[in-house]
Design a protein that fits this description.
This protein is of the alpha/beta class. The chain folds into 2 domains: 140 residues, Nucleotidyltransferase, domain 5, CATH 3.30.420.40; 170 residues, 2-Layer Sandwich (Nucleotidyltransferase, domain 5), CATH 3.30.420.40. Helix content is 42%, strand content 18%. The strands form 2 sheets. A 5-stranded mixed sheet has the order 3-2-1-4-5, sandwiched between helices. A 5-stranded mixed sheet has the order 8-7-6-9-10, sandwiched between helices. The structure holds 5'-O-[(R)-(carboxyoxy)(hydroxy)phosphoryl]adenosine (KG4).
Protein backbone atom coordinates (compact mmCIF):
# COMPACT_ATOMS: atom_id res chain seq x y z
CA UNK A 1 0.00 0.00 0.00
CA UNK A 2 1.33 3.43 -0.84
CA UNK A 3 1.96 6.15 1.75
CA UNK A 4 0.37 9.49 0.86
CA UNK A 5 1.43 12.39 3.08
CA UNK A 6 0.28 16.00 3.30
CA UNK A 7 3.01 18.19 4.80
CA UNK A 8 2.31 21.56 6.44
CA UNK A 9 5.05 24.07 7.26
CA UNK A 10 4.55 27.38 9.11
CA UNK A 11 7.57 27.72 11.41
CA UNK A 12 8.73 31.16 10.30
CA UNK A 13 7.61 33.37 7.41
CA UNK A 14 6.71 30.82 4.71
CA UNK A 15 3.32 29.13 4.64
CA UNK A 16 3.71 25.90 2.72
CA UNK A 17 1.84 22.68 1.97
CA UNK A 18 3.04 19.70 -0.07
CA UNK A 19 1.87 16.23 -0.99
CA UNK A 20 4.16 13.25 -1.52
CA UNK A 21 3.37 9.66 -2.41
CA UNK A 22 6.05 7.16 -1.35
CA UNK A 23 8.67 9.91 -1.46
CA UNK A 24 7.63 11.19 -4.88
CA UNK A 25 6.64 14.85 -4.88
CA UNK A 26 3.13 15.52 -6.20
CA UNK A 27 2.86 19.19 -5.20
CA UNK A 28 4.69 21.83 -3.16
CA UNK A 29 3.05 25.22 -2.66
CA UNK A 30 4.81 28.07 -0.84
CA UNK A 31 3.37 31.48 0.06
CA UNK A 32 6.27 33.71 1.12
CA UNK A 33 5.58 36.80 3.19
CA UNK A 34 6.84 40.05 1.68
CA UNK A 35 5.47 42.08 4.60
CA UNK A 36 8.71 41.71 6.62
CA UNK A 37 11.05 43.28 4.06
CA UNK A 38 10.43 46.86 5.17
CA UNK A 39 11.24 45.97 8.80
CA UNK A 40 14.63 44.39 8.07
CA UNK A 41 13.66 41.08 9.68
CA UNK A 42 10.73 38.78 10.42
CA UNK A 43 8.07 40.40 12.68
CA UNK A 44 6.49 37.45 14.57
CA UNK A 45 3.04 39.00 14.98
CA UNK A 46 2.81 39.84 11.26
CA UNK A 47 4.06 36.37 10.35
CA UNK A 48 1.28 34.69 12.38
CA UNK A 49 -1.37 36.89 10.78
CA UNK A 50 -0.10 36.17 7.27
CA UNK A 51 -0.07 32.41 8.01
CA UNK A 52 -3.73 32.70 9.06
CA UNK A 53 -4.59 34.24 5.71
CA UNK A 54 -2.48 31.84 3.66
CA UNK A 55 -2.97 28.44 5.27
CA UNK A 56 -6.36 27.48 3.78
CA UNK A 57 -5.63 28.45 0.14
CA UNK A 58 -2.11 26.98 0.33
CA UNK A 59 -3.29 23.58 1.61
CA UNK A 60 -6.22 23.56 -0.79
CA UNK A 61 -3.96 24.33 -3.77
CA UNK A 62 -1.43 21.65 -2.76
CA UNK A 63 -4.16 19.00 -2.57
CA UNK A 64 -5.73 20.06 -5.87
CA UNK A 65 -2.38 20.17 -7.70
CA UNK A 66 -1.59 16.70 -6.40
CA UNK A 67 -5.04 15.53 -7.51
CA UNK A 68 -5.81 13.94 -4.15
CA UNK A 69 -8.66 14.17 -1.69
CA UNK A 70 -8.01 14.61 2.04
CA UNK A 71 -9.67 11.25 2.68
CA UNK A 72 -6.98 9.54 0.52
CA UNK A 73 -4.17 10.69 2.84
CA UNK A 74 -2.25 8.24 5.02
CA UNK A 75 -1.20 11.04 7.39
CA UNK A 76 -0.99 14.80 7.90
CA UNK A 77 2.55 15.86 8.83
CA UNK A 78 3.14 19.28 10.38
CA UNK A 79 6.11 21.21 11.71
CA UNK A 80 5.90 21.13 15.50
CA UNK A 81 9.10 23.13 16.06
CA UNK A 82 11.53 24.79 16.29
CA UNK A 83 10.29 28.17 15.11
CA UNK A 84 8.19 31.18 16.07
CA UNK A 85 5.47 29.99 18.43
CA UNK A 86 2.68 32.10 16.91
CA UNK A 87 3.58 30.88 13.43
CA UNK A 88 3.84 27.25 14.54
CA UNK A 89 0.43 27.49 16.22
CA UNK A 90 -1.25 28.30 12.91
CA UNK A 91 0.07 25.21 11.08
CA UNK A 92 -0.31 22.98 14.13
CA UNK A 93 -3.89 24.04 14.82
CA UNK A 94 -4.84 23.73 11.17
CA UNK A 95 -3.32 20.23 10.96
CA UNK A 96 -5.19 19.19 14.11
CA UNK A 97 -8.48 20.52 12.81
CA UNK A 98 -8.04 18.71 9.51
CA UNK A 99 -7.14 15.51 11.32
CA UNK A 100 -10.12 15.75 13.68
CA UNK A 101 -12.48 16.49 10.82
CA UNK A 102 -11.30 13.68 8.56
CA UNK A 103 -9.92 11.01 10.88
CA UNK A 104 -6.53 11.09 9.07
CA UNK A 105 -3.72 10.56 11.60
CA UNK A 106 -1.33 13.36 12.58
CA UNK A 107 2.45 13.14 12.52
CA UNK A 108 4.61 15.81 14.15
CA UNK A 109 7.88 16.74 12.49
CA UNK A 110 11.03 18.46 13.74
CA UNK A 111 11.72 21.22 11.21
CA UNK A 112 15.45 20.49 11.32
CA UNK A 113 14.84 16.83 10.44
CA UNK A 114 12.91 18.15 7.43
CA UNK A 115 15.96 20.05 6.17
CA UNK A 116 18.24 17.09 6.85
CA UNK A 117 15.95 14.55 5.13
CA UNK A 118 14.97 16.84 2.22
CA UNK A 119 17.41 14.88 0.03
CA UNK A 120 14.94 12.00 -0.02
CA UNK A 121 12.32 14.04 -1.90
CA UNK A 122 12.18 12.57 -5.39
CA UNK A 123 10.73 14.56 -8.27
CA UNK A 124 11.23 11.68 -10.70
CA UNK A 125 11.04 8.02 -9.66
CA UNK A 126 14.70 7.45 -10.61
CA UNK A 127 16.15 10.38 -8.61
CA UNK A 128 19.13 9.38 -6.50
CA UNK A 129 18.83 9.67 -2.70
CA UNK A 130 21.60 9.41 -0.07
CA UNK A 131 22.63 6.18 1.59
CA UNK A 132 23.04 6.08 5.36
CA UNK A 133 25.14 7.16 7.09
CA UNK A 134 25.74 10.65 5.73
CA UNK A 135 26.93 13.96 7.12
CA UNK A 136 24.60 16.90 6.78
CA UNK A 137 25.82 20.49 6.97
CA UNK A 138 22.69 22.33 8.05
CA UNK A 139 23.14 26.06 7.58
CA UNK A 140 20.29 28.54 7.89
CA UNK A 141 19.36 31.83 9.50
CA UNK A 142 19.00 30.09 12.85
CA UNK A 143 21.31 27.08 12.68
CA UNK A 144 24.80 26.02 11.70
CA UNK A 145 25.23 22.35 12.49
CA UNK A 146 27.03 19.25 11.37
CA UNK A 147 24.82 16.20 11.84
CA UNK A 148 25.68 12.55 11.45
CA UNK A 149 22.56 10.97 9.96
CA UNK A 150 22.56 7.26 10.67
CA UNK A 151 18.91 6.72 9.79
CA UNK A 152 15.77 8.91 9.57
CA UNK A 153 15.28 8.23 13.28
CA UNK A 154 18.86 8.30 14.46
CA UNK A 155 20.81 11.53 14.14
CA UNK A 156 23.81 12.73 16.09
CA UNK A 157 24.72 16.39 16.48
CA UNK A 158 28.51 16.54 15.95
CA UNK A 159 28.91 20.30 16.06
CA UNK A 160 26.90 23.50 16.13
CA UNK A 161 27.36 27.22 16.39
CA UNK A 162 28.18 28.57 19.82
CA UNK A 163 26.86 32.02 18.90
CA UNK A 164 25.50 33.27 15.55
CA UNK A 165 24.42 31.09 12.64
CA UNK A 166 26.05 31.39 9.20
CA UNK A 167 22.86 32.97 7.83
CA UNK A 168 22.97 35.61 10.56
CA UNK A 169 26.55 36.44 9.60
CA UNK A 170 25.43 36.95 6.00
CA UNK A 171 22.37 38.97 7.01
CA UNK A 172 23.97 41.17 9.67
CA UNK A 173 27.04 42.01 7.57
CA UNK A 174 24.72 42.78 4.64
CA UNK A 175 22.72 45.06 6.92
CA UNK A 176 25.76 47.14 7.91
CA UNK A 177 26.50 47.47 4.17
CA UNK A 178 22.99 48.91 3.75
CA UNK A 179 21.62 45.90 1.82
CA UNK A 180 17.99 44.79 2.23
CA UNK A 181 16.85 41.87 4.41
CA UNK A 182 17.54 39.01 4.03
CA UNK A 183 21.03 39.96 2.96
CA UNK A 184 22.37 36.48 2.11
CA UNK A 185 21.11 36.40 -1.48
CA UNK A 186 22.39 39.97 -2.05
CA UNK A 187 25.86 39.06 -0.80
CA UNK A 188 25.76 35.99 -3.07
CA UNK A 189 24.91 38.13 -6.12
CA UNK A 190 27.51 40.84 -5.34
CA UNK A 191 30.21 38.29 -4.53
CA UNK A 192 30.14 37.01 -8.11
CA UNK A 193 31.63 40.34 -9.24
CA UNK A 194 34.16 40.90 -6.45
CA UNK A 195 37.70 39.94 -5.48
CA UNK A 196 37.37 37.39 -2.68
CA UNK A 197 40.94 37.99 -1.48
CA UNK A 198 40.67 41.79 -1.19
CA UNK A 199 39.76 41.85 2.51
CA UNK A 200 40.79 39.58 5.36
CA UNK A 201 38.41 38.98 8.24
CA UNK A 202 39.11 37.08 11.42
CA UNK A 203 38.23 33.39 11.68
CA UNK A 204 37.39 31.53 14.89
CA UNK A 205 39.82 29.21 16.64
CA UNK A 206 37.59 26.94 18.65
CA UNK A 207 38.24 23.27 19.29
CA UNK A 208 36.10 20.40 18.05
CA UNK A 209 33.41 20.64 15.43
CA UNK A 210 31.57 23.70 16.74
CA UNK A 211 31.18 26.89 14.75
CA UNK A 212 31.35 30.56 15.70
CA UNK A 213 30.48 33.53 13.51
CA UNK A 214 30.25 36.44 15.95
CA UNK A 215 33.98 37.27 15.68
CA UNK A 216 33.73 37.44 11.90
CA UNK A 217 30.77 39.78 12.19
CA UNK A 218 32.73 42.11 14.51
CA UNK A 219 35.79 41.98 12.28
CA UNK A 220 33.65 42.88 9.26
CA UNK A 221 32.08 45.77 11.16
CA UNK A 222 35.50 47.13 12.25
CA UNK A 223 36.82 46.94 8.68
CA UNK A 224 33.94 49.10 7.54
CA UNK A 225 34.25 51.50 10.46
CA UNK A 226 38.02 51.99 10.06
CA UNK A 227 37.88 52.49 6.29
CA UNK A 228 34.83 54.75 6.41
CA UNK A 229 36.84 57.19 8.56
CA UNK A 230 39.20 57.73 5.62
CA UNK A 231 36.68 57.42 2.80
CA UNK A 232 32.94 58.02 3.19
CA UNK A 233 32.29 56.11 -0.06
CA UNK A 234 34.31 53.07 1.02
CA UNK A 235 31.34 50.67 1.16
CA UNK A 236 29.85 51.85 -2.10
CA UNK A 237 33.19 51.53 -3.92
CA UNK A 238 33.99 48.11 -2.43
CA UNK A 239 30.56 46.45 -2.20
CA UNK A 240 31.42 43.52 -4.43
CA UNK A 241 34.88 42.96 -2.87
CA UNK A 242 33.44 43.10 0.65
CA UNK A 243 30.71 40.62 -0.29
CA UNK A 244 33.13 38.25 -2.03
CA UNK A 245 35.63 38.38 0.86
CA UNK A 246 32.90 37.83 3.44
CA UNK A 247 31.44 34.90 1.50
CA UNK A 248 34.88 33.33 1.06
CA UNK A 249 35.54 33.59 4.81
CA UNK A 250 32.17 32.03 5.73
CA UNK A 251 32.81 29.19 3.27
CA UNK A 252 36.29 28.58 4.70
CA UNK A 253 34.88 28.42 8.23
CA UNK A 254 32.11 26.01 7.15
CA UNK A 255 34.40 23.76 5.13
CA UNK A 256 37.11 23.59 7.79
CA UNK A 257 34.81 21.87 10.32
CA UNK A 258 33.03 19.82 7.68
CA UNK A 259 36.41 18.45 6.60
CA UNK A 260 37.25 17.62 10.23
CA UNK A 261 33.91 15.83 10.63
CA UNK A 262 34.44 13.84 7.43
CA UNK A 263 37.91 12.75 8.57
CA UNK A 264 36.78 11.88 12.10
CA UNK A 265 33.79 9.80 11.02
CA UNK A 266 35.11 8.41 7.74
CA UNK A 267 31.63 8.98 6.28
CA UNK A 268 31.70 9.12 2.48
CA UNK A 269 28.47 11.01 1.75
CA UNK A 270 27.91 14.70 2.48
CA UNK A 271 24.65 16.61 2.11
CA UNK A 272 23.92 20.28 2.70
CA UNK A 273 20.63 21.92 3.64
CA UNK A 274 19.00 25.09 4.97
CA UNK A 275 18.73 28.59 3.48
CA UNK A 276 22.49 29.19 3.28
CA UNK A 277 22.89 26.05 1.15
CA UNK A 278 21.30 28.15 -1.63
CA UNK A 279 24.53 30.18 -1.71
CA UNK A 280 26.40 29.72 -5.00
CA UNK A 281 29.82 29.77 -3.33
CA UNK A 282 28.82 27.28 -0.61
CA UNK A 283 27.33 24.90 -3.20
CA UNK A 284 30.40 25.08 -5.42
CA UNK A 285 32.87 24.72 -2.53
CA UNK A 286 31.11 21.64 -1.10
CA UNK A 287 30.77 20.06 -4.55
CA UNK A 288 34.48 20.64 -5.28
CA UNK A 289 35.55 19.46 -1.84
CA UNK A 290 33.63 16.21 -2.28
CA UNK A 291 34.72 15.66 -5.87
CA UNK A 292 38.39 16.03 -4.96
CA UNK A 293 38.05 13.30 -2.32
CA UNK A 294 35.68 10.90 -4.05
CA UNK A 295 32.94 11.75 -1.53
CA UNK A 296 29.35 11.63 -2.74
CA UNK A 297 27.73 15.09 -2.52
CA UNK A 298 24.04 15.91 -2.24
CA UNK A 299 23.37 19.55 -3.04
CA UNK A 300 19.62 20.30 -2.85
CA UNK A 301 17.71 22.09 -5.55
CA UNK A 302 17.35 25.73 -4.50
CA UNK A 303 13.58 25.27 -4.01
CA UNK A 304 14.30 22.81 -1.19
CA UNK A 305 16.95 24.87 0.60
CA UNK A 306 14.58 27.38 2.18
CA UNK A 307 11.54 26.45 4.26
CA UNK A 308 9.08 24.24 2.38
CA UNK A 309 6.48 21.63 3.22
CA UNK A 310 7.91 18.95 0.91
CA UNK A 311 10.66 18.37 3.46
CA UNK A 312 8.08 18.20 6.25
CA UNK A 313 6.12 15.63 4.25
CA UNK A 314 9.20 13.46 3.61
CA UNK A 315 10.29 13.57 7.27
CA UNK A 316 6.66 12.82 8.23
CA UNK A 317 6.61 9.87 5.85
CA UNK A 318 9.62 8.30 7.56
CA UNK A 319 8.06 8.84 10.98
CA UNK A 320 4.69 7.47 9.92
CA UNK A 321 6.31 4.40 8.35
CA UNK A 322 8.23 3.87 11.61
CA UNK A 323 4.90 3.79 13.48
CA UNK A 324 4.80 7.32 14.94
CA UNK A 325 1.59 9.30 15.15
CA UNK A 326 0.85 12.32 17.30
CA UNK A 327 -2.09 13.07 19.66
CA UNK A 328 -4.32 16.07 18.93
CA UNK A 329 -3.31 17.74 22.19
CA UNK A 330 0.36 17.98 21.11
CA UNK A 331 1.63 21.53 21.60
CA UNK A 332 4.20 23.14 19.30
CA UNK A 333 7.61 23.97 20.70
CA UNK A 334 9.64 27.07 19.85
CA UNK A 335 12.97 25.51 20.71
CA UNK A 336 14.18 21.99 20.08
CA UNK A 337 17.40 20.43 18.92
CA UNK A 338 17.72 17.62 16.35
O1 LIG B 1 16.44 28.06 6.17
P1 LIG B 1 15.99 29.46 6.03
O2 LIG B 1 15.09 29.82 4.89
O3 LIG B 1 15.28 30.01 7.31
C1 LIG B 1 15.66 29.74 8.60
O4 LIG B 1 16.59 30.40 9.07
O5 LIG B 1 15.00 28.85 9.19
O6 LIG B 1 17.32 30.35 5.93
C2 LIG B 1 17.30 31.73 5.78
C3 LIG B 1 18.74 32.20 5.71
C4 LIG B 1 18.86 33.72 5.74
O7 LIG B 1 19.88 34.05 6.65
C5 LIG B 1 19.27 34.06 4.31
O8 LIG B 1 20.05 35.22 4.19
C6 LIG B 1 20.06 32.83 3.93
O9 LIG B 1 19.33 31.76 4.48
N1 LIG B 1 20.21 32.69 2.48
C7 LIG B 1 21.38 32.86 1.84
C8 LIG B 1 21.09 32.69 0.47
N2 LIG B 1 19.76 32.43 0.33
C9 LIG B 1 19.23 32.43 1.58
N3 LIG B 1 22.60 33.11 2.31
C10 LIG B 1 23.59 33.22 1.42
N4 LIG B 1 23.40 33.09 0.08
C11 LIG B 1 22.20 32.83 -0.43
N5 LIG B 1 22.02 32.67 -1.75
Amino acid sequence: MSTLILGIESSCDDTSAAVIRDGLLLSNVIASQKVHEEYGGVVPELASRAHQQNIVPVVDTALRRAGVDVSDLSAIAFTRGPGLLGSLLVGTSFAKGLSLGTGVPLVDVNHLHGHILSHFIRQEPGDEVPEFPYLCLLVSGGNSQIVLVESPEKMQLLGQTIDDAAGEAFDKCAKVMGLPYPGGPHIDRLAAEGDAQRFKFSKPHIPGLDYSFSGLKTSFLYTLRDNLRADADFVEKNKAHLAASLQRTIIEILLDKLDKAARQTGVRTIAIGGGVSANSGVRQAVAEYCQARGIKAFIPQRAFTTDNAAMVAIAGMFRFQAGHTCPVDAAPFARVTI
